[in-house]
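Lab meeting prep.
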Amino acid sequence: MRMKKGMLALEEPVKQIGAIKRRKESKKLYVDFYYFGRRITRSTELNDTPANERKVRAFLDKVMQRIEDGTFKFAEAFLGATEEEKEFFTQLEGREYRPEPHQVVFGEYVKEWMATIFPTFGSPTKRRDYREAIETRILPAFRNMTFHQITGMAVFRFTESLVWKKGIHKGKPLSTARKSNILIPFRSIWNDACDHYRWVIKSPFDNLRKRLPKTEKKEHTVIRFADWLTFLDNLEVHYRPIAELMILTGMIPSELGGLRKDDIEGNYLNVRNSYVLGVEKKSLKTAFRKRQISITEAIRKRLQELQNRPGSPYLCTMVDGSRFNSSRFCKVWKKAVDQAGIPYVTSYSARHSFAAWSLIIGVNPLRLVKLMGHASKQMVYEVYGNYVEGLEEDAENIFRYFGRDFIIPGKSKSPIPFRDSTGDSFANNLLTFGDC
């Protein structure tokens, strides 16, 4: 019989005997004995009944006999003990601690993993997402299982059980993408355990992707120009230049939060840092996101309005003067969308709209790659290059909104040929411009 997790106390060595203990605050039976001069008091998780007392007595007699024979193995007898305890006593027994998967309880290993590996993750967003998935989803399902018991089928059943816990979708299955995100820290813990204990075992995550339903590729919403103006009319005045800066540059809220007033240098706005979950990061999502944005007349107008706001070294602030907070801003954004009565768009839609708007007025895709901070033009074509019904009707307004100097920086007064196949007044008024 093997006991589950209990308590370990260190006291002065006494005569090595085993006893069954009871505690006033508990209805469980406890074993109490000394091993290598250390007192071990551990719950059996068995209720205090005569039958269970006999079971515990038999177990304790075997323990004492094996201790006397020198064959007792603490790690095998107490699977629920912490990894630190198991390693400590195994070393005292003169053996190397190399437990097998059936000897390591997942929940106990996670405690060690959270204390040693988890803090090494530099991203606060990653730490937040990992902690939430581990504490609210993974541990409740696998805490008391050994690694041997965590099979591919067990993981699949786990993914099938994942549902929304609150909100309007409460009780409905999570999307495949969300399930996959929850499995990321689970897989990381599994791989780290295999590396730590040098296990060569089949991963329960192999072939799991084939069992999960495929997620339909999400189409990113592009804002029509008239809807954008309606949205701005309903957005709090303080946030209008911030929202316009987003759609004129393709910047995202976390990048706006990292902007300082001294990031404006001459004709360029330097995107160097980001601000996420109250933490300033000296790096961006990728190395390519660190970029210089040429300041057009339209962009400078919004920058000057933001620069003139006193009281903060940061370019973007909340209405109360505090540093720009993307989570709070998203709520302000949603309120304006609801009041405007336009199709639902998120603040991230401004970035997608910037790309689609740029393409519709003839910006060279290779230049757009640099403007958005991507590594290659693949993202431009695959994510932003989809046809948007009716967007070509907005081309003239978008062109005027962005300004001629957006097409060729520094050439705001030079006529630029405009390519337009419709032959409408836009082509006649602006001439025609091609890919530049």
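Slide two material, second protein:
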Amino acid sequence: MSEEPYAQNGRSRYGEETDRTYERAGFGAPVRRGSRPALVVVDLTRGFTEDAFPSGADMTEVVEATATLVQAARPVRVPVIWTAIAYSTAEAQGNSVTWLEKAPGMRALVEGTRAVALDPRLPHRPEDQLVVKKGASAFFGTSLAATLTALGCDTVLVCGATTSGCVRATTVDAVQSGFPVLVPQECAGDRAQGPHDAALFDIQAKYGDVVPLSDALAYLGKLPAPALPGHPAG
């Protein structure tokens, strides 16, 4: 996703009238940034990141940018939580999941198949948490909100796919669960440019801050270093 929906002066490329309308409505204020963030990587599974799958697209750039962010999170012990959509065979073939009636191409996301495996180019670790979900939001029907609270997190960086679907839905529910959200722009991807741009515009206006990857990396880099075992932080 090479085109940017925001110019360097912070204006959208949807026109001055749109900008004035949203400013008049009081949207677009920056979110606060806490000192204990978590990184939630949404659905960067092979079924979404590889164009060989019906539900996928080539998201090499998104995977690489997200890998960079994950690697930056490790030294400061920022929790990395991965999500994946996966259905049982009965769910994929039946009519119990209403979403699959609207998006039948996602019936290929069956438990245990290559389509639901995390992209192997990502630096996933066994100790990382994995949230398996059935819907768009990583919060709906899962323990993600409770997990973030238990970890003491006060900010969430949301990455992944697709921008107009699961990334946006996860961002909305993160805010509704009480977490300020940052979305590193290079770390979100979609199947087409238009929905991607529209979703980022919507997120920036109403739910979180859409920021350059460089900004997200700088934010992580300014976090206090974790204390060594047996030594107080300070």
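Talking points for slide two:
The chain has one domain: 33-221.
The CA atoms of residues 184 and 212 lie 5 Å apart.
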